Amino acid sequence: MLKYSIRRLLGMIPMLILISVVVFSLAKLMPGDSLSGEIDPNNTNPEYIAEMREKLGYNDPLPVQYWNWITGFVQGDFGKSTKYKRPAFDVIMEKVPNTLFLGIMSLIITYILAFMMGMYSGRKPYTIGDNAIAGINYVMLAIPSFVAAVFAIYFFAFNLNWFPFGGSVDILVETGSAEYYLSRLHHVLLPALVLGAMSTASYTQFLRNDIIENSRKDFVRTARAKGTPMKKIYNVHILRNSIIPLVTFLGFDFAALIGGAIITETIFTYPGIGMLFLDSVTNRDYPTLMALTMLLSFLTLAGNLIADLLYGIVDPRIRLE
Amino acid sequence: MKKNKSLLWLFALILVLSAFLAACGGDDNGSSSDDSEKKEETETETESTAEGEPQTGGTLVYGIDAPPEGLFSSAFYGIATDAEVIALFDEPLIDYNENLEPVPNVASWETEDNKVFTFTFEEGVKWHNGEELTVNDWVFALETIADPDYDGPRYSNVQTIEGAEAFRNGEADTISGIEVVSDYEIKITFDEARVNNLTNLWAYPLPEAAMGDIPVAEMSASEFVITNPIGIGPFKVDKIVQGESVEFSKFEDYWNGDVNLDKIVLRVIDNSSVVGALQNNDVDMISLQPVSGPEVEPLENVEITTYPGLSYYYVGFKLGKFDSESQTITEENPKYQDKQLRQAMMYALNRQEWVDAFFFGYANVVNAPVPSSHWNAADNSELNTYEYDPEKAKTLLDEAGYVDQNGDGFREDPNGDEFVVKFSHYATGNPTFEARAQAITQYWEEVGLKTELEMVEVNLYYDMVEKDDPSIETFFGGWGTGADPDPSGLWKADQLWNYPRYNNPEADKLLDDALDIEIVGTDQDKRTDLYIEWQKIVNEEVPMLYIAELEEIVALNNRVGGVEYDVSGQNNPAEWFVTE
């Protein structure tokens, strides 16, 4: 397994280089640059903009710009964000905890809901309950997240006052105190619920179908013949087999956790990677944009590797060599 | 038993989720009327107190609708949102009154010739870190901005000081035009006498004791800009949560009078939540987008205040091509050279109707490119107001030779060739932009001008406008003007940002004269006359169709008092108070 992992990791390098070339060219092909949004006679003047273009190297040929960027990048210098005037790495790292927290919370919510609904549906397929769950799941999947977010804020935050309507923490509580962590949890719940509850469909349906399929298999019949209680058959024998396809999702989830949720983050003013990413695209903040893309590409590749390794753990029949 | 329990759980969950869905559709009327009744009771009490004597103590929640970039230093910030945050904890040496004329704040000045200025600082002004403000902090700010490593946009505000150029090129260790007389007195010499030397000068100090050791190139990423900014204002920054909130507390050693509030909490609130947050008393004051105005007006716990803004919208014509090397307009585009055509297109627009529809009444029609609150703005009585008059537009087009020759319902150009007006508007995520652009094209089609609309992604749009891309013919745009009302930077023929490429030496001469100290001296009336003369020309020639100037809209909770606005912005936050 170690050999396999190393081989896969080495295989990522050419892939990442290719991704960096493609993303860099695409970023530079976008019209305008980080200074074209700054046309404001109160604040700047054409001379400053021309000078900054020269300073930032935007007038160099593209291959030169790419070379300058990539040599810095491999040495760990991700460049300075043109928008925030700070190292892109710092800007990203500042948002990572928020995003991770929101991502993990919403994933937990998704998993809990999906497991409950999927297990129920799988045990009682084609009943009213099963159809109702499928119906709700697809409706949830179809509702755009901004609509859900706005209504969730209206209902839970403004009408019921259960949750704060935005932000990641109450600034008035002391950082590091128990109250602070409670406040963070309180702030993250509503966006996490919106994100988590809306995306249960694929997990639920995968789990359901797998449970149905496995329940017809020979080992189930054998277990039943031996007198094993149905509950044990479903919760142990079938479930363990049915989790395998979900592990594939986990690989993608890994990158999605960091990738953040652009719209939900914006509406809840929850400063995270999603907002930063969108921002870096609209402002042509190339260093941040490139650092984020590379980070997310790497995580997607790494996530897939982890998923592959997990297969072997969940199902010992699958051997990696 | 256990099985049943999990089933119960499931159904409870489904119920919750469906209740949430039902809430989306249904009974919001019932619940919100309950709410407003409750508020009415409290509101009657608070209004009487908020109008009365200032009270001390309390926390005010100040909302902004876009996240700041986090460059909280006067010398380094780049966007207006950051400036809004800075205004709460820092203040300039020189302020502006309601006529946008400079008035002394920390510093007062004397000059005889508009070339050499002597500034005298108040004594005992303290920075938030306890150091005393002296003229050296200002020198430090000016030298930072003039440093070749400085990465902010303010150099043009220092450039006019004698010797700044040499300092920047590394030929001198200090700026020769700056002479420190004492800790509280400084003499600044400009490279030449100008009428607007003072308004152009950079008038914010930087804390030298705190920031002096940081290399200029690293300053914008330093803690004194990002996490722990220091100012001289009535509130000091206690804590910053990047991208979402800032906590300010009263600065006990504030130099200019008492501070009423104990704390200000600044929060970023997304536009979709602004109305709800106002209604629930979750935010005390926030600037509104025009589109939120009609929703906020009916709220009884909130009052809307408007004050004149300093920006205007226009539809420009591309009249030529600009060469940025030689800084001249090199070519003329023939298509829109006919003045009567441009005037007809102006008469065809029902600007009032358009403004009411897309800015909900929070904007006023303008007839010249100077916002009406500037002291040099021409009165409408001196200008052609181009009242909506489609008949007049048609007559003008007929006179100019734009008539329908082939009977297709649209006019041809004087040579009989097909004539299509191409109108470009920028596109962002905002869905109203296309509607408002479409409305303009319809006005023109009504007088028989065939119009084609193109929506262009905003970054590409300004790139194309700036580079005189041939596909841009008429274009929508907006400008904000600052305290200095001089329009030279946006209008003279040698300026990159003169997007219509309007080239009229007579008009340029007026603008030059208005800044020439030999001609106008220090007499503001003389300058005003010249500017009005200039506005008459551009009003007559319409190189761009002036559409509207926006109003700034602020929503204030009834418990807030002491807040005043004029065209220069808000009053000193030290005077704000809240009633509990």
Automatic annotation (TrEMBL), chain A:
Give the UniProt family note: Belongs to the binding-protein-dependent transport system permease family.
| Superkingdom as given in the UniProt entry | Bacteria
- Location relative to the cell: Cell membrane
| Keywords on record | Cell membrane, Membrane, Transmembrane, Transmembrane helix, Transport
Q: Which InterPro entries match?
A: BPD_transp_1_N, MetI-like, MetI-like_sf
This chain belongs to the protein called Oligopeptide ABC transporter permease
| Taxonomic lineage of the native organism | Bacteria, Bacillati, Bacillota, Bacilli, Bacillales
Entries under PROSITE patterns matching the protein? ABC_TM1
Please give the Pfam families that the UniProt record associates with this protein: BPD_transp_1, BPD_transp_1_N
CDD domains recorded: TM_PBP2 (cd06261)
> What is the topology of this protein in the membrane according to its UniProt annotation?
Multi-pass membrane protein
Which stretches are transmembrane?
9-27, 100-120, 132-157, 188-207, 243-268, 288-314
Automatic annotation (TrEMBL), chain B:
InterPro entries (alphabetical): Opp4A (IPR050034), Peptide/Ni-bd (IPR030678), SBP_5 (IPR039424), SBP_5_dom (IPR000914)
Q: Where is the signal peptide?
A: 1-22
Region annotation (Disordered) maps to 28-61
Location of the Solute-binding protein family domain: 102-491
Which Pfam family, an example, fits this chain?
Answer: SBP_bac_5
Does the keyword section mention Transport? yes
Ordered alphabetically, the record's keywords are:
Signal, Transport
Q: Which SUPFAM superfamilies match?
A: Periplasmic binding protein-like II
Keyword Signal (UniProt): yes
Q: Which family is annotated?
A: Belongs to the bacterial solute-binding protein 5 family.
Q: What is this protein called?
A: Oligopeptide ABC transporter substrate-binding protein
**Species assigned in the record:** Planomicrobium okeanokoites (Planococcus okeanokoites)
Taxonomic classification? Bacteria, Bacillati, Bacillota, Bacilli, Bacillales
- Per the record, the gene is opp4A
